[in-house]
């Protein structure tokens, strides 16, 4: 656990202050943690604690005010193909079909039509959208759109997948299906995943490791090694071991939610 050379990602004392006209917002205050190759990390914390900011810094879309993020030992300074992102709101290109959306990054990277088709067919199968290849985003349900967004990110074969509340806008049933689908995809590809959520059940169900953040300014409050079996099906959510972890995490979150409520009101 302390062998830094083996870490895929190192978030090292990252602080971020947003400076507006009226006031400054300290979003992150020396947040530090690391992620192993193929680890599935979930980040949990109250609204406004800096979760999205961390992902944006790892994505290279925002620069930290101080501290740094290392990917395979190299400092991140800009976006790159080694990192793929999936956001909560649907970011598909409305004028492209399902297949064209999935192939978009491959097209940009100069892959041939045949190469693109092989990859997109694989993921269309994997995410259960066979028969929908030529549909446009407007004709898909929310869950289907997010499947396409995940497939599009994976098609580029990134080393790290950054997911910012990707199932946050979905209903509870669809959300459960999507969690199992993502675990299935992860089982095959073993990407390193950084997954932000404010849903405790979701964090415990899909993560290997949970980092709980403090209320703003965000720091890492606790690390929880989930240690549940790799085979995760819905009945696991009803098990005693699941409930135990959930209780522990909810206790940590509750403290922070109270702090946030007391400073914001
Ligand atoms: N571009 C920005 N300019 C000013 N303030 C921002 C900006 N982005 C985020 N913030 C502020 O930083 C804090 C953390 O935001 P964010 O990372 O989006 O939180 P979370 O994703 O945990 O809800 C919030 O108070 C938010 O209002
Ligand atoms: Mg957010």
Automatic annotation (TrEMBL):
The keyword Magnesium does not apply. Keywords: ATP-binding, Nucleotide-binding, Transport. One of its GO terms (molecular function) is ATP binding. PROSITE patterns: ABC_TRANSPORTER_1, ABC_TRANSPORTER_2. The keyword Disulfide bond does not apply. PANTHER family: ALIPHATIC SULFONATES IMPORT ATP-BINDING PROTEIN SSUB, TAURINE IMPORT ATP-BINDING PROTEIN-RELATED. This is NitT/TauT family transport system ATP-binding protein. It holds the Pfam family ABC_tran. SUPFAM superfamilies: P-loop containing nucleoside triphosphate hydrolases. It comes from the Bacteria. Residues 9-240 form the ABC transporter domain.
């Amino acid at each position: 656990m302390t062998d830094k050379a083996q870490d895929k990602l190192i978030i090292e004392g990252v602080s971020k202050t947003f400076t507006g006209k009226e006031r400054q917002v300290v979003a992150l205050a020396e947040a530090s943690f690391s992620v192993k190759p193929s680890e599935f990390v979930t980040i949990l914390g109250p609204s406004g604690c800096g979760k999205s900011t961390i992902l944006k810094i790892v994505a290279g879309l925002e620069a930290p005010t101080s501290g740094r993020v290392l990917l395979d030992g190299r400092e991140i300074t800009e976006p790159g193909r080694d990192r793929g992102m999936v956001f909560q709101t649907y970011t598909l290109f409305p004028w492209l079909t399902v297949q064209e959306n999935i192939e978009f990054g491959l097209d940009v990277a100069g892959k041939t039509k045949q190469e693109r088709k092989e990859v997109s067919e694989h993921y269309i199968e994997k995410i259960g959208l066979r028969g929908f290849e030529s549909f446009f985003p407007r004709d898909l349900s929310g869950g289907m759109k997010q499947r396409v967004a995940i497939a599009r990110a994976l098609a580029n074969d990134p080393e790290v997948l950054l997911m910012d509340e990707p199932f946050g806008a979905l209903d509870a049933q669809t959300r459960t299906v999507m969690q199992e689908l993502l675990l299935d995809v992860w089982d095959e590809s073993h990407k390193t995943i950084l997954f932000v959520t404010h849903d405790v059940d979701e964090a415990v169900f899909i993560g290997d490791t949970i980092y709980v953040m403090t209320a703003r300014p965000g720091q890492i409050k606790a690390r929880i090694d989930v240690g549940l079996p790799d085979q995760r099906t819905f009945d696991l959510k009803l098990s005693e071991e699941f409930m135990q972890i959930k209780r522990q995490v909810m206790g940590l979150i509750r403290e922070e939610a109270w702090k946030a409520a007391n400073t914001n009101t």
